[in-house]
Amino acid sequence: MKSCLVVSSFDKFSDALSEPLKQSGIYRTDTAASADAARRILIDKEYDLIIITAPLSDEAGLTFAKDVSEGHDCGIILCCRPEKQSAVEADLAPYGVFVLPLPVNRQVFYSAVRFSNAAVQRLGKLRKKERQLQKQLDDIKLIDRAKCCLIQCLGMTEQQAHRHIEKQAMDLRRPRRAIAEDILKTYEM
Predict the structure, then answer these.
(1) What is each CA distance from 102 to 17, 59, 77, 81, 136, in whole angstroms?
(2) Any long-range contacts for 8-15 (C-beta under 8 Å, 24+ apart)?
(3) Are 175 and 169 in contact (CB under 8 A)?
(4) N or C: which end of the chain has fewer CB within 10 A?
(5) How far from the centroid of its chain's Cα atoms is residue 186's Cα?
(6) What is the sign, positive or negative, of the torsion defined by CA atoms of 172, 177, 182, 187?
């Protein structure tokens, strides 16, 4: 089950936004009455979706939305007065925050929730790919350092050092990274 945090200074809005999500059976919802209370909750919990109704009792809500977008991988929907929607959208667009006008049309709200969920899933895939590429890059750097050690300490050519690491990995049935780590432990001080 997905989790949602509704941050609103008004109980009426909290109930109106969280009840349909609870009834859908897809989201478990929690509420916070201020940005400060929400920040305390976010220290211990991660959410799939955060809905904010602006303004909040302790701040306008925009700073909170920006902070959440930079520190958490979740969908964020901010609801504000219609006359402020354009300015708020312009301010929050770089942070990936969806802005909806109050009062929120139920159909538009559900569409925003679905779109936010899709965006979070796509972001998750991109983050996973980024981690894989970073690991590959780290492996290449480590293997290159091991080659340099072999070249400096044993007088091998770059091609010989490369072949040595490859052959050790095949013969010992270990990853090239592990072989490179062993070489670095042996020859680096």
Answers:
(1) 11, 18, 12, 5, 47
(2) 8/33, 8/51, 8/52, 8/53, 8/56, 9/33, 9/34, 9/53, 9/55, 9/56, 9/57, 10/53, 13/53, 13/79, 13/102, 14/53
(3) yes
(4) C
(5) 38
(6) positive
Close Cβ partners of 145 (under 8 Å, ≥ 6 residues apart): 180, 184, 188
Of the chain, the end-to-end C-alpha distance in Å amounts to: 51
Long-range contacts, stretch 60-63, CB < 8 angstroms, 24+ apart? 61/7, 61/35, 62/88, 62/91, 62/92, 63/35
Q: Is there a contact between 51 and 4 (Cβ–Cβ < 8 Å)? A: yes
Q: What token pair was written down for 37?
A: 């209370």
pLDDT in tens, 43-91: 999 999 999 998 888 888 889 999 999 888 889 999 999 898 889 999 9
- CB atoms < 10 A from the CB of 123, how many? 14
